[in-house]
Amino acid sequence: MFHARFVVFGDVQGVGYRSYVKRIALMEGMNGYVRNMLDGTFEVVVESKDKAKLDSFRNRLNKRSIGSFDNINVEKINEEISETKEKPQFNSFDIKF
Description:
Alpha-Beta Plaits, alpha+beta, single chain, about 40% strand
């Protein structure tokens, strides 16, 4: 099982970014969560059995346009990825408020 934590920096609040992240996580078959942080960043935590899907997910986080929203500005994504033998920690993907 691969566990990843991404911190997304940039102007992505108020444009449906959390819903977009949830949609791509579900499309990639991942569980976890996304939430706004107090400092204006987004934290995304996911887990997957497939490293390639995790890489695809990371690339899609960096997309500059979501549907009719063209003003997304992902400046940087910090990531922590680890592989463990732990059982899955999540059984769904949630948007935390």
